[in-house]
Amino acid sequence: GESVGLHLPTLSVQEGDNSIINCAYSNSASDYFIWYKQESGKGPQFIIDIRSNMDKRQGQRVTVLLNKTVKHLSLQIAATQPGDSAVYFCAETLGNTDKLIFGTGTRLQVFP
Amino acid sequence: NAGVTQTPKFQVLKTGQSMTLQCAQDMNHNSMYWYRQDPGMGLRLIYYSASEGTTDKGEVPNGYNVSRLNKREFSLRLESAAPSQTSVYFCASSASTGISGYTFGSGTRLTVV
Questions:
Q1: CA angle at B47 for the pair A45 and A26, rounded to the nearest 5°
Q2: Which of A29, A73, A79, A101 has its CA 20 to 30 A from that of B9?
Q3: Whether residue B8 has a cis bond before it, omega within 30° of 0
Q4: DSSP state of B53
Q5: Which helix (H) or strand (E) segment is A5 a member of?
């Protein structure tokens, strides 16, 4: 069945470096993708989204890249800070539905 | 503060007990959702409600029931709790179909012993 998955379960980066979190999806019909950040003991928070008719979208310190050819999504965080430490999930929606399919998550650890 | 409010935050149940998890949003969102999150896993959809008066099953509906009481409130009921239902439960809402992300509540940590 359709699934959204992540390549790396844990990513450790030094403060100030750039982070790249990857995600693979299997449903070529997915048309909307979202990255969420989840801090310990909290619910997921929206970070950035991208539609399937785009290949790049930038926010504040974050960039999402979408490669539909290989069904790959990435989240880039510039100048990673200790406050960026969290679990990051990618998610996709299908067609005109509201339902989100979540990946298993990547834990980002930022060390001094 | 605007957002999604879940109660309770923590709950311990004995096997076979029943309980209802409450969720309310004050953003005038049409759609609401219940997810469960197990350790080391992503969120799995239990039930959702695309609009007031409608509910549909998600990926893992067995053992649960829901009620969309009004536009603001969406409750999740466990009729006979089982240890396999030990999890963190998240409620979420979204404004409209397929064009916006979700706003999540802070979660309910449920343990069934």
A1: 65
A2: A101
A3: yes
A4: T
A5: strand A4-5
- Structure tokens of B57? 């099953």
Helical ranges in B1-113 per DSSP H: none
| Helix or strand holding residue A50 (H, E) | strand A45-51
Residue of A31, A97, A100 for testing the chain B interface, max B β-carbons within 10 Å:
A100
What pLDDT score does A19 carry?
A: 97
| C-alpha span between B106 and A7 (Å, rounded) | 27
* Beta carbons within 10 angstroms of residue B59's beta carbon: 14
Interatomic CA distance for residues A26 and A6, integer angstroms = 11
Query: Cβ of B98 and A31 within 8 Å?
Result: yes
Nearest CA in chain A to B95: A98
Q: What is the pLDDT along chain B (113 residues), one digit of tens a residue?
A: 569 999 999 999 999 999 999 999 999 999 999 999 987 778 899 999 988 989 999 989 999 999 998 999 999 999 999 999 999 999 999 886 555 678 999 999 999 99
Other beta carbons within 10 Å of B96: 12
